[in-house]
């Protein structure tokens, strides 16, 4: 068991080293480990991440509904296509969005990682259509949504 872990770690060293030096590899690495695909790629979680790269980061039509209203994961490929790298770097330092987007994680990234993220997503190219607009509290979404946080179970019900 120990030998397998050592071999697995040894195999990862070249991949991590490459991701550090090449902004596009670093950007892809960040997209994958930071969970960008989890929300911004349709069907990513349901397929254990087996979604063609052509569909990555094209936004989601399933909403997240909570006390803030209903939000939808942005089509990042269109979003990044609409701004320059400098505009992104400025926007990233000020980013504050509605839940469940962890905007504070983006604000914590260093400039090199923000640039890598931008360059990778721009390299993917514009694709897909815009996600639905966010809805204010009290407005009923037309399509599917996930209650967030999930409502408590009914009395006597199972978790």
General description of the model:
- The chain has about 160 residues and is mostly helical.
- About 45% of the residues lie in helices and about 5% in strands.
- It has 7 helices and 3 strands; from the N terminus they run αααββααααβ.
- The protein has a 3-stranded mixed β-sheet with strand order 2-1-3, with no helix packed on it.
- Strand 1 (about 65) and strand 2 (about 70) form a beta hairpin.
- Helix 1 packs across helix 2 and helix 2 (about 25-35) packs across helix 7 (about 110-125).
- The radius of gyration is 18 Å and the shape is globular.
- The relative contact order is 0.17.
- The mean pLDDT is about 90.
List low-pLDDT spans: none
Distance between the termini: 35 Å
The major beta sheet can be summarized as: 3 strands, mixed
SSE pattern: HHHEEHHHHE
Oligomer: single chain
Q: Strand order within the widest sheet? A: 2-1-3
Helicity level, as a percent range?
40-55%
Number of helices: 7
């Amino acid at each position: 068991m120990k030998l397998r872990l050592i071999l697995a770690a040894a195999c990862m060293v070249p991949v991590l080293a490459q991701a550090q030096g090449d902004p596009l590899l670093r950007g892809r690495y960040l997209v994958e480990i930071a969970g960008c695909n989890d929300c911004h790629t349709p069907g990513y979680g349901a397929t254990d991440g087996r979604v063609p790269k052509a569909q990555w980061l094209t936004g989601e039509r399933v909403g997240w509904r909570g006390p803030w209203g209903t939000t939808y994961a942005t089509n990042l490929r269109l979003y990044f296509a609409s701004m320059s790298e400098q505009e992104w770097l400025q926007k990233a330092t000020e980013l504050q969005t509605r839940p469940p987007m962890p905007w504070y994680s983006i604000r914590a990234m260093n400039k090199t990682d923000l640039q890598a993220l931008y360059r990778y997503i721009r390299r993917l190219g514009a694709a897909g259509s815009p996600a639905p607009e966010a809805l204010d509290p009290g407005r009923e979404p037309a399509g599917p949504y996930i209650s967030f946080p999930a409502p408590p179970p009914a009395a006597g019900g199972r978790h």
